Each structure stands twice: as structure tokens, then as C-alpha cells.
Amino acid sequence: MTLPQGRSVAEWTGQGLVALASRHLREEFARLYPDAAEVASVDAIEALALIPDVVVEWASTPPRGSCELGGVYDGDVEPARIIIRESHNRKRNLFTALHEVGHHIFWNDEAWQFQILPELRDKARLIEEKIVNDFAASILVPEEAVALHLGDGVSPEGIQALIQGTQASATTCCIRALNQPGQRLVILASEDGHIWYADSNGTPYNPGKRVAQPALISAIERARESGKYRLMGGDGIRYSKGWADTDVCLDVLLHDGLVIAVVTSTRPSLRGSVSTGWHEVCEACGAEFAVSASSGQCTTCGDWKCPDCRGCQCTASKAVYCRRCFLALPTAEVSKGMAVHEECE
């Protein structure tokens, strides 16, 4: 199949084009590496060994430039190289392996590299990550299992059944759930409410992992007795731009030390928002600050401006990263021509 061109960034972030591009990757995988594709759903590690133009290395610590999964792909070397931080969780290793294979296929796809990626601008990496996540999840979680456990609708119980009945990790099963009809936000968190994974295929929108979610924490507390709980409204889902979507339903399930949450909108036409005074995390320098301490919201991106570096998401998109710890340098340090944090020198 041919990838569509001339689509907007907004269209590419939607689940429709993500699923289409994911299918394109699966078709290219089967065409380019038929032996690897045949065994990938059973053993992704073995599949990696059957890809002749890639060298795979395993590391005990996250490699430089790695994504959240602990893997990195380098197509600038010959042969191409994939480095994966080996996890004690085999399911996670399987997902990371296929995730990086997705990057490898995209790297050699001329239409993707030269016609589509340039149009995605600063969202290119985010969109490619979303697509290769879906690619990996679609291989590890077979259609039959999805139809059995999510066919009547996506629920935390259905996602739990996928985790228990397949070789896919909890995160993989959450990603798979996003590809089902309907719109939802899916969250995987610790029992203290710390979000490890969050993504959405529409509304409610993804709040990310940095904003504390009191409604989620409240639902978790109420779920401790029976293992699950449904919370309507409450504090809603909070967002970094200073508002909260209170028109939501949170379904929460406790599973093996984790929390699976599926959040859906209850009345999309009457979505409400409320002002809040919670703490923000600056996208530019990483500092935490109270909204009340900000000088105001950026008129371009809508983020609250950081009182420390005066940065926002616009600044973050032009960020300079420390050569040693790979975190963004504060605007003040960048203006001095620094390439390394003072504390890293």
C-alpha cells in the first residue's frame, strides 16, 4: 500500500492514519524480511536475528539518545544498528525490539523520509513513535485476542485479559486498545497515581505524564476494596495549559501492582473546563512551578511561562540539550553559549 501524502499534522496524529501507516509497516516487514515477520509474533528477539542488515546490541543501561522504552535505532551506520536496554521484563524487551524494527523500516522508506516527514515538522518524531508503537503492538497482540476481549468495547478488564492471555506487556495492550473503534484516553499508572503511560485516540485528550491527576488518585483509592472503580466527573482530567476536562468517566482497575484506566467523554457537546492552580513542569527547562507564579500564558502554544527560564513549549521545540545528561538547558544557560549544564561540568 502507498502512504497518503498532503495530509495535515492533525490528521497524522489521529488513529486513522496511525493505523494505516502501521499496516504499511507490517506489509513492508513481510515483504522485506519474510522469515523475520513469520516468527515475530511468537518471538520478536528471534525475528531481530533474522534481519540481515541490522546489528543488535543489548545494554545494561539506556543507550544515548534512547526513547522511553530504552531502545535506539541508528541508520547512519553500515549495517544499521539497534541498541536495546535489556529489561528484566521479557515482554517489554519484545515490544522494544519490534518498535525499533519499525524505525528501521521507516528509515529505508523513501516516501516516508522525503515526502511525509518534512511536512510533519516538529511533530515528526512524536508521530513516528506513535506509529511504530502501534506496529509493535499489532504484531504482539493478535486480532483474535483483541476481538475476544475488546470486541464489545474497551474496558480495563478487557486490557487486563489481553495482558494475561498474550505475551504482550501491559503498555503494549494499552496501545492495542487505542486502535479499537471509539475515542478514549488510556492510562497505565502505579498504585500511587504516578503515570507511566498515557495516550489518546481523540477525546479526552492526552494530558501527558507530568501533570498530577487527583481524580485518578481518588479512583485508585476507592478501587482498593474491590479492585475496580468507576468515577464520574470529579476533578476530571487536568492539562498543562491550566484547565480540566470534568466531563469524563474514569474506569479504573488494579492489576498486579499496576493501575489500568480507561477514560471516556460523557457529554462531548457540553465539555466543561475549570481554572486550576496546580503545579506545572516547564517543557523548556524541566523546573516545577505554580501557575500562580507564571507571568502568563504564551500566545502561541498556550503553555504557562516558566518563572525561572521564561520558557514554554515554543522554547522547548528549539531546545539545546546538555551533551552529558541529555536534558534541555535552561534559556539563561543557552544565552551564555553553554552546551553543558553547570552541574554537569
Overview of the molecule:
With 345 residues, the protein is an alpha+beta fold. It folds into 3 domains: 9-140, Arc Repressor Mutant, subunit A (Orthogonal Bundle); 153-270, 2-Layer Sandwich (Beta-Lactamase); 279-345, no CATH class. Helices cover 37% and strands 17% of the residues. It is built from 13 helices and 12 strands. It has helices at residues 9-13, 15-32, 34-39, 44-49, 90-107, 110-120, 124-140, 143-150, 156-165, 170-177, 214-223, 313-317, 331-335; strands spanning 54-59, 71-74, 80-85, 185-190, 195-200, 228-232, 237-238, 244-245, 248-255, 258-265, 279-281, 288-290. The strands form 4 sheets. It has a 5-stranded antiparallel beta sheet with strand order 5-4-10-9-6, with helices on both faces. The protein has a 3-stranded mixed beta sheet with strand order 1-3-2, with helices on one face. Strands 7-8 form a two-stranded antiparallel ribbon. Strand 7 and strand 8 form a beta hairpin. Helix 5 packs across helix 7 and helix 8 runs antiparallel to helix 9. It is globular, with a radius of gyration of 21 Å. It starts with 8 loop residues before the first helix and ends in a 10-residue tail after the last helix. Residues 269-276 have low confidence and may be disordered.
